[in-house]
Write a structure and sequence with these properties.
This protein has about 350 residues and is of the alpha+beta class. The chain contains 9 helices and 12 strands. Helix 3 runs parallel beside helix 5 and helix 8 (about 320-335) runs antiparallel to helix 9. It is extended and about 65 Å long.
């Protein structure tokens, strides 16, 4: 791995000679400029306006144009001799919690390796102290032609230097979020959390890949082979507003659960029927009707027919006594035919018969 920077980490009175190595690499399909008419390569030439001719790269320097139009030339030696203490020293300024650094400030990452065997122990000391405390070290470093704030943290047992931008280089976010007051109902928030949990199940960040680079490579291969370039169907237009947020959340949750079951079952497996999506109560349910007390309903709202029937069959009336006599006669007839009721029912019938008052002749 190629060394990017050589210097020393200053940790109080402890010095750790280190080398920096680029921790990331970007995969990209190399493309260059060509003439669209005939495919001829288009190259950029370093052209000097003063002499009217091309100049070699070795004669190129950096310059600054002042407000009055004058140009100041800066050579590589001028830049190398800048009076910066951070040119070769990573000075640890403070130790803070990782949450105190806004992720917007993070830039490029570098692995920190020891320059010699003598640096192994102080390197391990700083690494273990950061791990145990759960903090990160705030530093400054000059890389190439720029000084940047940076942090030292631990990744997989290795110190990592992450350069940052300056705090005043972070643009304010005022005026970007909606200005109007938006109320999020508890039902919507609950459904959104359910959708978040479903989408996060069995998620593996290492499985992500660059679809753009893959599609670009397919187009290049098709051009080389002289076959038709693959095309993907254009997606439909997205709605410009959300008509029913709850309906959209329910549909999203149902689709996410189906996709999750498909991932767990593996490719080619039949989709299994899972539990239904949780249905939440409607946002504005009508209030239940008030029921009248039982006493009032019995006294004031009983149908006239039912009241009359109860009155007609009361035990104290003539109709009640006739009804009891007919019941006793039917019980006697069934007993004689061999289909009499159980003893308990017979006793109950007899009790009802004897309870009814008989007319004295």
């Amino acid at each position: 791995m190629q060394t990017t920077w050589k210097g020393t980490i200053s940790f109080g009175l402890v010095s750790i000679p280190v080398h920096l190595y680029s921790a990331t690499q970007e995969h990209d399909v190399p493309l260059h400029q060509v003439h669209a008419k005939d495919g001829g390569r288009v190259r950029m030439k370093r052209y000097c306006e003063q002499e009217g001719k091309e100049v070699p790269y070795a004669e190129i320097a950096k310059g600054y144009e002042s407000p009055d139009g004058r140009t100041v030339t800066l050579t590589d030696e001028d830049l190398a001799e800048l009076p910066l203490p951070s040119k070769k020293v990573i000075d640890v300024l403070a130790f803070v919690d990782a949450a105190e650094i806004d992720p917007l400030m993070f830039s490029k990452a570098y692995y920190v390796g020891v320059a010699d065997k003598a640096a192994a122990k102080p390197y391990a000391l700083l690494r273990d102290a950061l791990t145990e405390s759960g903090r990160i070290a705030v530093t400054k470093i000059a890389l190439r032609t720029r000084e940047s704030p940076a942090v030292l943290r631990v990744h997989d047992g290795t110190l990592v230097l992450q350069t940052c931008i300056w705090p005043d280089e972070v643009r304010p976010a005022a005026g970007i979020a909606p200005d109007e007051q938006v109320t999020v109902r508890p039902q919507e928030l609950k459904m959104a959390r359910s959708l978040m949990d479903t989408l996060s199940e069995d998620f593996d960040l290492s499985q992500l890949h660059d679809d753009y680079q893959q599609a670009l490579q397919q187009v290049i291969e098709a051009r080389i082979q002289g076959v038709e370039v693959p095309h993907e169907e254009e997606p439909g237009e997205a709605p410009d507003n959300v008509i029913d947020l709850m309906a959209a959340l329910r549909s999203s949750l149902k689709e996410a659960k189906g996709a999750h079951r498909g991932r767990r079952a593996g490719p080619g497996a039949e989709p299994e029927a899972g539990p239904a999506v949780e249905e939440l109560p409607p946002v504005e349910a009508p209030a239940p009707r008030k029921r009248a007390p039982a006493g009032k309903a019995a006294a004031g709202k009983a149908p006239a027919g039912k009241a009359a029937a109860k009155k007609a069959t009361a035990p104290g009336t003539a109709t009640g006594r006739a009804t009891a006599d007919r019941a006793a006669t039917r019980a006697t007839t069934r007993a004689a035919a061999g289909t009499a009721k159980p003893a308990a029912a017979a006793k109950k019938t007899t009790s009802r018969k004897s309870a009814a008052p008989r007319k004295v002749s």
